[in-house]
Structures are given as structure tokens and as C-alpha cells.
Specification:
With 137 residues, this protein is mainly alpha-helical. It is built from five helices and three strands; from the N terminus they run αααββαβα. The protein binds zinc ion.
Length: 137
């Protein structure tokens, strides 16, 4: 499996999902305490510079990570310099020059690369069902 997720970017995605969980758990004290502890330890594993960008984005109601598909940033819909895309693919942490989000390169051919919650629902067909119905007639 080909993955272009930088370690920090992966943690930022985790941070996002924890923050969403925290927002949903406003009236649940136990859950909130648990998520806050997780958030704290996750934040402790990230460099201050990365956290600063994340928090600035959050203040503006934006995500700090943007997927890059076919060289286009999903955050601002502008094309990234090809050199930047290649650097992200090579495992270097890069931010979009336009919107400032951390870039996460997603290759359309790699189905397993989509972040959680954004997987397209694929209709599943049972292969044996049709044949069995046919045979019953
Ligand atoms: Zn952008």
C-alpha cells in the first residue's frame, strides 16, 4: 500500500477527529475527560510549530490538513507546485502555499488512502445470490 501521510499529518487528522468527539461530548463529563486526556497526549507528541498552525486554522473554523488530489489542494482548490507535491510524496511535511494547510497527497488509485469518515459507500452485491435464484427455477 502506498501512503503519503506524513507522521505529523496523520496525528493532525487524529486531532481533528478527537476535537469533533469532544464537541459532541459536551454534556458527557466522562467522555469529555477521556477525550481531553487523549487530546493532551496527542498534542504533546506534535511540534509547537505544527500545533500553532492547527490552532490558528481551528480558530478560523478550518481544518489544518487538506487532501491534495491530482495536484489540487482540497482546501483552496488551487493547484500546488509539482515540486511541492513530489516533496509531500517523498515524506516531507509541506503546507499549501495558498491556504497554509498541511498537504496530504491522495492518489485516486489507492483506495485505502481515504481518511476515516470520507470513504464512499460502495454497494455490495452478493455474488452467489443471483446464481442461486436462477438455479431454483
Ligand atoms: Zn490550499
Amino acid at each position: 500500500m502506498k501512503s503519503h501521510t506524513h507522521d505529523f499529518v496523520g496525528r493532525l487528522l487524529e486531532l481533528h477527529s478527537l476535537e469533533e468527539r469532544l464537541a459532541r461530548a459536551l454534556r458527557n463529563r466522562n467522555e469529555r475527560t477521556k477525550v481531553e486526556a487523549l487530546l493532551e497526549s496527542l498534542r504533546a507528541s506534535l511540534p509547537v510549530g505544527v500545533l500553532t498552525v492547527h490552532d490558528q486554522m481551528k480558530t478560523r473554523g478550518k481544518r489544518s490538513v487538506a487532501e491534495v488530489r491530482h495536484g489540487v489542494c482540497s482546501g483552496c482548490h488551487l493547484e500546488l507546485a509539482i515540486g511541492n507535491v513530489n516533496e509531500v510524496k517523498a515524506g516531507i511535511l509541506r503546507r499549501c502555499g495558498n491556504c497554509g494547510r498541511f498537504s496530504l497527497v491522495v492518489e485516486e488509485t489507492v483506495a485505502n488512502d481515504s481518511p476515516p469518515g470520507q470513504r464512499p459507500a460502495k454497494p455490495r452485491r452478493k455474488a452467489g445470490e443471483k446464481a442461486a435464484a436462477k438455479g431454483a427455477r
